[in-house]
Each structure stands twice: as structure tokens, then as C-alpha cells.
Design goal:
Blueprint (H helix, E strand, L loop, with lengths): L3 H7 L4 H10 L2 H12 L2 H10 L1 H21 L1
């Protein structure tokens, strides 16, 4: 059975996840965010599959960033 978080990540726009990684992550996670942004779908699937737990955390952080950004406007 496929992890539902992985399916959510694969169907989401990576912008906010990448932004959270750049703003709140260590140098490693900032670099991983850059790789995620540059990745095509096949490579994005590999990244999400290998780092599901960590990327889920940044996905949730990205949702909060997006919400805060929309609240400013």
C-alpha cells in the first residue's frame, strides 16, 4: 500500500515546500529543496520516496507559510 503522504506530496505544487526548506532548513535541506525544485516528475518521485518523513514536515511548514502569506494580502 502506498503512503498517502507520498501521494499528497506527488500531487502538490512543490513551491511552498521548497520555500520552507530554504527558509527553515539546514544547508542540507536547502540544497535538497533546490534539487526538488529542479527535478522533473520522475526525480521528484525519487526524492519524495526517499525522504517522505522529512519532506512531509517541510510540506506542512509550507502550508503554514502559504497561509501566513495569504493572511497578509
Amino acid at each position: 500500500m502506498t503512503d498517502p503522504r507520498l501521494q499528497t506530496l506527488l500531487h502538490s505544487e512543490p513551491y511552498w515546500t521548497v520555500r520552507a526548506m530554504r527558509e527553515q532548513g539546514s544547508r542540507f535541506y536547502r540544497a535538497l529543496g533546490d534539487a526538488l525544485e529542479a527535478a522533473d516528475l520522475a526525480n521528484r518521485r525519487r526524492i519524495y520516496g526517499a525522504w517522505t518523513d522529512e519532506l512531509w514536515d517541510f510540506y506542512e511548514r509550507g502550508l503554514r507559510l502559504e497561509e501566513a502569506e495569504r493572511g497578509k494580502g
